[in-house]
Each structure stands twice: as C-alpha cells, then as structure tokens.
Known about the structure:
By secondary structure, the chain is of the alpha/beta class. It has one domain (about 5-170, about 200-230, about 275-290): NAD(P)-binding Rossmann-like Domain (Rossmann fold). Helices cover about 40% and strands about 20% of the residues. It is built from 10 helices and 15 strands. A hairpin with a 2-residue loop joins strand 9 (about 170) and strand 10. Helix 4 (about 175-185) crosses helix 6. The longest helix has 24 residues, at about 80-105. The two termini are about 40 Å apart. The mean pLDDT is about 95. NADP nicotinamide-adenine-dinucleotide phosphate (NAP) binds near residues 12, 70 and 71. This is TIGR01777 family oxidoreductase. It holds the Pfam family DUF1731. Belongs to the NAD(P)-dependent epimerase/dehydratase family. SDR39U1 subfamily.
Amino acid sequence: MNEIVLITGGTGLVGSRLTELLQEKGYKIRYLSRSPGKVKDVEAFVWDVEKQTIDIKAFDGVSYIIHLAGAGVADEKWTPARKKVILESRTRSTALLKDALRDYPNNVKAVISASAIGYYGFDNGDRWQVEGSRFGDDFLATVTKAWEAEADLIRELGIRVVKVRVGVVLSENGGALKEMGKPVKLGLGAPLGSGDQYMSWIHIDDLCNIFIYAMENENMSGSYNGVAPHPVTNRDLTKSIAKEMGKPFFLPAVPSFALKLALGQMAGLLLGSSRVSSERIESEGFKFKYPEIKGALHNLLEN
Ligand SMILES: NC(=O)c1ccc[n+]([C@@H]2O[C@H](COP(=O)([O-])OP(=O)(O)OC[C@H]3O[C@@H](n4cnc5c(N)ncnc54)[C@H](OP(=O)(O)O)[C@@H]3O)[C@@H](O)[C@H]2O)c1
C-alpha cells in the first residue's frame, strides 16, 4: 500500500512542487489547509490555527508529516498585527500538530518542518553560517527560533523531527525570482544597496528533494540548512538573471535608504547578508542537482 504523507501549507509555492515530486515517487498526499478544496486532486482536511481546531481524520494512516504552513513573510508590510500573524501561523500551527499527535492514536514516523535561514539574522557579512551558529536578534530570527522550539517538542512524543532552514527559494512559479526578474525584464536590473550582500538561494526542486530525503532517511534529525552549496552576492545574482534573460545590467545600485523608506524593517531581507553552508545536508549524502546559480537559472528561465 502507498504510504501517506500529510502536508500542511501544501497549497503554497513549495508544497505544490513537493506534492508533484512525492506523487511521482508513489506516495499518497493529503493536505491540512485553512480552505480545503483549493486543489482538486488532493484530499484535504481543515484546520484553524487561530481557533486551534483540527480534523483529526487527517492523521488516519499517515506515515509522515511535512509542515510548511505559515503566513507569507514578504506579502505585506510588517505592522505589529502582521508580525503577530507571521509568528503565530508558525508557532501555533506547530503546537496544534503536536497536541493532535499527542492526543490521538497515530503511526506518524517523522515530522519534517520548514524553518528558515532567517534564524541566523542578516548581519553576518561574508561569514559562513552553519547549523550550530548562533541565532540572530532580529524579528525573523525570533520567529524561526520559536518555530523550531515548538517543533522540537514533537520529539518528546517519540517522533523523529527534522527542521529544514530554507534559503531563498528560486522557482519559475513565483517567490523571489519572479520579483527580482520584474525590473530586469524591463531592462532595469541593478544591485540593491552595496550589492555585496550574500543571498543563500536554492532551486525549488533541490529543496523539495531535501524534504523527501529527510523524510526517507531515518538517520536524520535536528536542523539542516536548505540552501545550495554556492551562495551568491546580490550583484552577482541580479547580473546572472539579466544575462540569462538577455537583458542589460549596468544601472547604478538602488540606494539602501530608498529601500528602507519603501519597505521599513522588511528591507533587511534584501539588504542584509546571509551566507549559509550546505555542508551538513551534503554530509548526509544528499546530492544537489543545481549547486551553481548558472545551472539553476538556466533551468528556471529557459522558457
Ligand atoms: N519561499 C521561500 O523563499 C522561503 C524561504 C524561507 C522559508 N520558507 C518557508 O517555507 C514554507 C513554505 O514556503 P512557501 O514559499 O511554499 O510559502 P507559501 O507559498 O506562502 O505557502 C504557505 C502556505 O501556508 C498556509 N498559510 C498561509 N497563511 C497561513 C496562516 N495565517 N495560518 C496557517 N496557514 C497559513 C497556506 O496554505 P492554505 O491556504 O492551504 O492553508 C499557504 O499555501 C513557509 O513556512 C516559509 O516560511 C520559504
């Protein structure tokens, strides 16, 4: 019988591709969603993180849970209310999963939870960040730390837990690449701020394969960075996108103050530097299909 994987936030950018790759491998997919019925071919069950309610039938026969749910970090300006939603959609959803797994009989072997490289903060210059590096002190670092702490509580139920600290996901269907590609397409490609800040990116297929690898590999537990082996600076990334699109890249840099004015605290996401290491996941035997930015962009932008 096909093993069942329950995905939270499965309707999103990462979840949609992960669903395809898991289905190709013969797994049966289920979603926990705020609005089931969004995706036709996947059986979905409802949960309400705010009200802390969940349809426990979702867990029947499930072998693995992949936890991706969380309000979009870059979707809206960071007002105090939005920050609360960003934090609690992650911590309280994880707590809801933990309570359900504690209170209802189940055969879940592992929970693989998303986390983010925001854990390390964005003021690390060109210093490599490994899983044991200290966490940052900005808003996203606080969020990821609290999110991972909730996920760790699931271990106390005797269930294996892996946390994947996801980098900037590059996909042809949305996310950072689509946003960065917009000005480049118009011939307005330019570095942001100094342009020297590191961006630790990952091709969406490599990321989804890390989630699957972590799920299938019983020896893995704890935190792993989900980033490609070769982070690039903002200047090099924008230049590579322009080259792949056959567009110019010669404009002066967008000044930091303009980004700060437009985006407030969120500007730190674009102006801050984060050079994150993939050594730990590689030491588990994981092989990247797209280790270099050139190959990743060529694959994503060729059509
Ligand atoms: N994409 C990136 O570059 C990136 C980088 C670092 C970390 N990550 C992390 O990886 C995970 C997946 O990323 P993604 O890009 O696929 O995210 P996404 O496209 O924004 O999808 C996230 C999913 O979470 C659910 N969700 C949204 N708001 C929610 C809320 N307030 N409460 C509960 N559930 C909510 C939604 O599913 P339903 O509508 O079905 O409920 C949504 O489809 C996220 O947790 C994200 O923080 C992503």
